[in-house]
Task: inverse folding
């Protein structure tokens, strides 16, 4: 399985993708705050937000199927917690309102992340003076999560092809070995990266 | 005239284990392209890491590595690292920034160049590596060959006088290998290439050094040495195909 | 346990945001001061590792699968402050890149899983592994601490949801804590298995560098402790029924909440005033207490199984300081 399934659409060409990252991030933030703070009387405003987001989604040329699938992937937790809201007076209305707000916010973030390369978001963070150590950590994490996910998948496949039982305990043991090996390789890779950074003058 | 690289009686061991390098001595002249060959575990990578001071971890004793006449030691490291461009074996270890531009700009930035100068360097380096227009690309979307060339551009952007390469053609497909080979051919600076790709050594290097079990076992003109079947087999190498039809005079 | 947008009201989002930002700044400062330069890239790489490890599915009964969260694992392997940075980085990337966890809930998520989960879990690990020596003690401590951190985080999450008025406290606490008491078992189990595997392959990774006396920063300990206490007190104490009202009034005064807005619930939570609720909280707490003891025993048994007798004699060395 290729790892680029994790970041396939952030570099498409579309009017939305071309917008500057700070604008998109700020808009997303404002929209999320507004939607979250909206009282139940403001229900109709949610509709306006939804229309806006659907327009943006259309303009962005991100495949609808992908958007729907991502939302469906994220919905279960929303529903799971929202269901607890049913256990109180007026719960049904509250539940629907909650789910609507959450889903819209999910859509906002999905659109943001798929129209903005993470590298640009990092640049915004750097510009607003987020501590350098955190930015470096985020930068390296983003760069290497694809590499490590790939490695993990490969190791897992290699391991599972040598596991001839479907019993749970041996499978867990094999998977734990994969995770431990991944960590060990990660520490070794981190050392090599440190060497590569020093080789080009890092201090 | 100082040799570009001079190694004098270099010893190294990892922790309390067996010695990785046992009294290695050789030199590379200005403008030369020298190949470093040997079986796995011979110590090639370990040797290369000494050339820009990433090894040793502690600096007691006489200096063993000299670049352009100056000893490689803690106070000369910044200048040495600018002069010696080291290309690592796994481009994933060396390409650590989120975009190609940022990664190639890393070196110049660390060496104190301003934004304008850095941008110029990056553009030039990418063009030299055949990657013009790749500025905004993300590393995880690149092929192995492209990643390698980005690493090379990143090293070239520091304007080195010596290129040291560790297995530059490993895991490249034939086209990637060809492109890299042509690229290296076009770069006239001093080069030291550690590799298993003996055909590459024949095509690019005038001289070759054979390392086995931490010591140099042979040194001399490429064609002559690599045609010596006995020598090659003795050190777990083999005569490259390209030389099978050549008769050494 | 990532809280999505829309479940927390403004006062809770802001309060958790402030606490999380404080915790994260402290962690960053600690890491900057105490982490040797050669380990700086490890923070980013470890964050990538945690992310990749979270994607590995461990099959559980009935077609479902569990996965590692990794906060305590990171804390044991890297130290508490680096672990906070690592977990926060994972949460930030998950939020910004994958919409996993809301933007307005980022503070709460970092507080629950980073500060409470990683630091709180580490503190428990530190305490237990000090009392029981060797690899056995390390595995026991890590398994138990991983369970605790899962449950702690879920309690805080439940509290935050309740204080926001989204869900009733009597509903959400048993639900959240109950489910996570089971999920936590998996977390503890996987953490233990992974640590044992690392110990077998590269034991030196489990031996943190012996902390020099001067690097032990009591300031950081105080701040972390304070944050954890404050976080739990604000969001996880059902007995402080005046808190939501107190916070509400503060929020109104500060302008976070529109004075004319209708509360999400039509009336002040009647639950707090009913005597029956106290009983249900008591029974939940009792169940929690019993569960904790049971899990500790399970962790002990697990460590016995995983760590052969011969290895139990060796010293694991002093765990890291914050």
Result:
């Amino acid at each position: 399985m290729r790892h680029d399934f994790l970041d396939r659409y952030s570099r498409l060409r579309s009017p939305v993708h071309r917008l500057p990252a700070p604008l998109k991030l700020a808009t997303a933030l404002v929209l999320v705050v507004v939607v979250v703070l909206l009282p139940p009387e403001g229900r109709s405003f949610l509709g306006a937000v939804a229309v806006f987001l659907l327009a943006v989604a259309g303009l962005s040329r991100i495949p609808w199927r992908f958007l729907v699938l991502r939302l469906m992937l994220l919905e279960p937790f929303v529903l799971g917690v929202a269901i607890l809201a049913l256990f109180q007076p007026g719960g049904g209305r509250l539940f629907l309102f909650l789910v609507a707000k959450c889903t819209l916010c999910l859509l906002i973030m999905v659109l943001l992340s798929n129209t903005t390369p993470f590298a640009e978001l990092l640049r915004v963070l750097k510009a607003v003076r987020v501590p350098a150590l955190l930015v470096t950590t985020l930068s390296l994490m983003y760069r290497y999560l694809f590499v490590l996910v790939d490695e993990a998948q490969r190791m897992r496949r290699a391991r599972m092809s040598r596991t001839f039982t479907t019993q749970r305990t041996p499978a867990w043991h094999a998977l734990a070995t994969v995770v431990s090996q991944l960590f060990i390789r990660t520490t070794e890779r981190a050392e090599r990266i440190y060497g590569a950074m020093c080789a080009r003058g890092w201090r | 005239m100082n040799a570009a690289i001079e190694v004098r009686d270099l010893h190294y061991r990892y922790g309390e284990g067996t010695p990785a390098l046992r009294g290695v001595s050789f030199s590379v002249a200005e403008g030369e392209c020298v190949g470093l060959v040997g079986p796995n575990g011979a110590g090639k990578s370990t040797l290369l890491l000494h050339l820009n001071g990433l090894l040793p971890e502690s600096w007691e004793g006489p200096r063993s590595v000299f670049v352009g006449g100056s000893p490689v030691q803690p106070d000369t490291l910044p200048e040495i690292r600018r002069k010696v461009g080291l290309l690592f074996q796994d481009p994933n270890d060396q390409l650590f920034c989120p975009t190609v531009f940022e990664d190639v700009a890393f070196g110049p930035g660390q060496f104190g160049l301003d934004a304008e100068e850095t941008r110029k360097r990056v553009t030039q380096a990418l063009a030299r590596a055949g990657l013009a227009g790749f500025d905004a690309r993300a590393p995880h979307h690149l092929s192995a060959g492209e990643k390698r060339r980005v690493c090379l551009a990143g090293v070239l952007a520091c304007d080195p006088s010596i290129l040291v390469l560790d297995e530059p053609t490993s895991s490249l497909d034939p086209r990637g290998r060809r492109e890299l080979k042509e690229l290296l051919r076009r770069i006239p600076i001093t080069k030291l290439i550690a590799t298993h790709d003996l055909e590459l050594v024949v095509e690019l290097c005038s001289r070759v050094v054979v390392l086995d079990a931490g010591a140099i076992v042979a040194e001399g003109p490429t064609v002559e040495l690599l045609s010596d079947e006995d020598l090659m087999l003795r050190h777990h190498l083999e005569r490259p195909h390209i030389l099978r039809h050549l008769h050494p005079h | 346990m990532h809280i999505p947008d829309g479940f927390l009201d403004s006062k809770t989002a802001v309060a958790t945001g402030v606490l999380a930002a404080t915790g994260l700044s402290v962690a960053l400062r600690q890491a900057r001061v105490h982490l040797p330069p050669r380990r700086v890239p490890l923070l980013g790489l470890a964050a990538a590792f945690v992310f990749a490890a979270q994607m590995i599915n461990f099959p559980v009964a009935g077609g479902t699968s569990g996965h590692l969260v990794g906060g305590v694992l990171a804390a044991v392997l890297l130290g508490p402050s680096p672990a906070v940075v690592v977990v926060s980085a994972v949460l930030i990337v998950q939020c910004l890149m994958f919409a996993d966890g809301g933007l307005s809930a980022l503070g709460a998520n970092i507080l629950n899983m980073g500060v409470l989960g990683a630091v709180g879990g580490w503190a428990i690990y530190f305490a237990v592994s000090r009392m029981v020596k060797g690899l056995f003690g390390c595995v026991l401590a890590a398994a138990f601490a991983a369970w605790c951190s899962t449950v702690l985080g879920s309690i805080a999450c439940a509290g935050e949801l309740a204080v926001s008025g989204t869900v009733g406290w009597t509903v959400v606490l048993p639900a959240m804590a109950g489910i996570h008491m089971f999920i936590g078992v998996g977390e503890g189990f996987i953490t233990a298995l992974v640590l044992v595997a690392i110990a077998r392959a590269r034991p030196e990774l489990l031996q943190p560098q012996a902390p020099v006396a001067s690097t032990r920063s009591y300031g950081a300990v105080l701040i972390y402790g304070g944050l954890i206490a404050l976080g739990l007190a604000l969001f996880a104490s059902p007995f402080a029924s005046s808190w939501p009202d107190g916070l509400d009034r503060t929020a109104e005064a500060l302008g976070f909440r529109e004075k004319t807005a209708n509360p999400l619930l039509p009336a002040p939570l009647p639950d707090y005033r009913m005597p029956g609720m106290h009983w249900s909280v008591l029974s939940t707490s009792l169940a929690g207490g019993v569960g904790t003891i049971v899990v500790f025993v399970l962790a002990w048994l697990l460590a016995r199984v995983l760590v052969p007798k011969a290895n139990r004699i060796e010293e694991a060395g002093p765990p890291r300081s914050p």
